[in-house]
Amino acid sequence: MTSITDVPQREKPFVPAKKVNSEYPLIDSDPHFKRVIGYSRPMDWVYGAGFGSLLPASMLLMERVSPTNVGKGGFASAMRLSGGVGLAAAFFMTYSRSINRFYGFTENRREVDMDMREMVDKVKRGEPIYGTSELTEYMQGVASRQSRYAGTWIHVMPWFNFVNHNQHGVDTAKYYQQAERELEAEKQRS
Predict the structure, then answer these.
(1) Tell me: the pLDDT tens digits for 50-93?
(2) How far apart are CA 135 and CA 143, in angstroms?
(3) Is residue 98 within 8 Å of 39, Cβ to Cβ?
(4) Where does 95-147 show beta strands of DSSP type E?
(5) Residues near 50 by Cβ (< 8 Å), separated by ≥ 6?
(6) 95 partner at 20 to 30 Å CA-CA among 41, 57, 65, 156?
(7) CB within 8 Å of 134: residues ≥ 6 apart
(8) What transmembrane ranges does the database entry give (predicted)?
C-alpha cells in the first residue's frame, strides 16, 4: 500500500489559477487565513458586527411583539443559540469582505500597498514570500486547488487556506523587482 508521500512527483504539479476579470488588481487567489484576517479593515468588523447582531435583535423584537411564554430558561437558550449563529455570521461577513479585496472584486488599493510592503520586506530579509511548509510540493498543489477562490462560496461552505504554498495566481517577480529598486536606492543614499 502506498502512502500519500509516495505519490510520484510530476514535472509540473502546478495548476495555474484561473484569471478572473475584475476592475481591481488580483492580490492573491488563495490567501492564507492569517493574511485575510490581518488585512481586514475596521469597517469590515463594523459591518460584520452589524450583520451578526441582526438575528439576536430580531429574536428580541419577536419576543416583544409576540411573547412565547416558554418559561424561565426557554428564551435564554434561544438567545444563546441566536447569539452563536450571529457571531458566526459576523465572522463570515468580515472574512468575505476582506477576501473579496484579495480577489480584486472590490476596491483594494490599501491591500495592494500592504501586500507589496509585506512581500518586499520578506524578499529583503531573504525569507520565502509565502512562508515555508512541511508538505510536499504535490500536496501543496492539492491544498491550493482545494481552497483557491473558496472565499466566493463562504456563505455556502466555509473553506479556508491554512497551508503555505507558492501557487497564488500572481507573478511574484514584481516583489523581487521592487526589492531590487529599494536596495539600489538605499545603496545610492549611503
Answers:
(1) 999 999 999 999 999 998 888 778 888 989 999 999 999 999 99
(2) 10
(3) yes
(4) none
(5) none
(6) 57
(7) none
(8) 45-62, 74-95
* Exposed/middle/buried for residue 8 (C-beta within 10 Å: 0-12, 13-18, 19+): exposed
Cα separation of 101 and 78, whole Å?
A: 35
Residue entry with cell 480584486: 104
pTM, to two decimals: 0.84
For residue 148, give the C-alpha cell. Answer: 483557491
How distant is the alpha carbon of residue 169 from its chain centre?
Answer: 14
The tens digit of pLDDT for each residue in 3-34 reads 445 544 444 556 677 778 889 999 999 999 99
Question: String of b and e for 79-101 (b: at least 16 CB within 10 Å)?
Answer: beebeeebbebbbbbbbbbbbbb
Q: Which residue type sits at 6? A: D
CB of 115 within 8 A of CB of 108?
no
Query: Is there a contact between 14 and 167 (Cβ–Cβ < 8 Å)?
Result: yes
